[in-house]
């Protein structure tokens, strides 16, 4: 039985990341290292910092990454690509040229007999009205068409500088740390969703750029607890669901892997990377 891998948030091409080429090569080396062991790879959004396709034009660069995705799909590995809040504007290129399976909405799916709820995570439980408005505007087809009336050079400059500003307004360009179960939007959303969907075994998200691994009781009268003592090696108790946030591929290089029995949250470690 081959493994299934989950990763998110590489933000390739970000103007706020100095080690762009090294970062892309590290991601490609990871994908190359798993290609014979993988049944499927789920990319849970924001793999690009800004991606916008025109009818005959796609963003410059990313040839190593796109080539590796194509190699994986040519080998028969399922590659599922979820749009995030930075790479919404894709209209067929990734599917037609790279062979990925595109998802624009959260996906509930069966993997090796377990039920998974998979999503990038943006817009799930976040009450910020400004973010909700921006998200609506970015997903609105009329707004998307208006953006594509702009010359590609100007459109890409606008998008990449917006993405850079979005990252640099945070301290050190990083997301705030875990806020706790009573304040973390994705945790609150998951608990609420679990009330009406108790059949789900695993919830996996990107978006937040933090590593999180929680056991959530399907009986909401019971406490939740982090993976650690009592849940080592990916053990899952009956009546509990497991929630993971995957970290990122900017600083953390983390991913989850499921072998049909155990789910592990891992960090990709290799020898000294060459720029």
Describe this structure in words.
The chain has helices at residues 20-34, 63-74, 93-98, 129-139, 141-147, 152-168, 185-196; strands at 3-7, 38-43, 78-82, 101-103, 107-111, 114-119, 202-205, 211-217, 225-226, 240-246, 254-258, 263-267. The strands form two sheets. The chain has a six-stranded mixed β-sheet with strand order 4-3-2-1-11-12, covered by helices on one side. A six-stranded mixed β-sheet has the order 5-6-7-10-8-9, with helices on one face. With 275 residues, it is an alpha/beta fold. It is built from seven helices and twelve strands. Strand 5 and strand 6 (114-119) form a beta hairpin. Residues 227-237 have low confidence and may be disordered.
What distinguishing features does this structure have?
six-stranded mixed β-sheet, 275 residues, alpha/beta
């Amino acid at each position: 039985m081959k493994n299934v891998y989950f990763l998110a948030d590489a933000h390739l091409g970000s103007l706020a990341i100095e080690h762009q080429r090294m970062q892309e090569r590290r991601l490609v080396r990871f994908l190359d290292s798993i290609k014979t062991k993988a049944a499927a790879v789920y990319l849970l959004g924001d793999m690009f910092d800004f991606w916008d396709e025109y009818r005959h034009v796609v963003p410059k660069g990313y040839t190593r990454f796109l080539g590796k995705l194509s190699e994986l799909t040519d080998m028969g590995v399922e590659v599922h690509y979820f749009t995030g809040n930075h790479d919404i504007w894709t209209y067929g290129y990734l599917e037609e040229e790279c062979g990925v399976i595109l998802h624009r909405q959260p996906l509930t799916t069966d993997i090796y007999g377990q039920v998974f709820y998979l999503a990038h995570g943006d817009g799930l439980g976040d009450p910020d009205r400004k973010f909700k408005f921006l998200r609506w505007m970015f997903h609105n087809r009329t707004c998307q068409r208006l953006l594509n009336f702009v010359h590609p050079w100007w459109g890409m400059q606008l998008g990449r500088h917006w993405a850079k500003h979005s990252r640099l307004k945070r301290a050190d360009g990083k997301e705030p740390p875990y806020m706790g179960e009573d304040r973390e939007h994705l945790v609150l959303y998951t608990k609420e969703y679990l009330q009406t969907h108790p059949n789900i075994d695993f919830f996996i998200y990107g978006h937040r750029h933090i590593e999180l691994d929680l056991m959530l009781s399907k009986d909401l009268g019971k406490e939740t607890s982090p993976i650690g003592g009592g849940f080592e090696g990916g053990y899952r108790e009956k009546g509990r669901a497991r929630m993971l946030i995957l970290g990122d591929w900017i600083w953390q290089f983390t991913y989850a892997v499921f072998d049909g029995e155990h789910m592990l949250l891992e960090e990709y470690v290799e020898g000294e990377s060459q720029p």
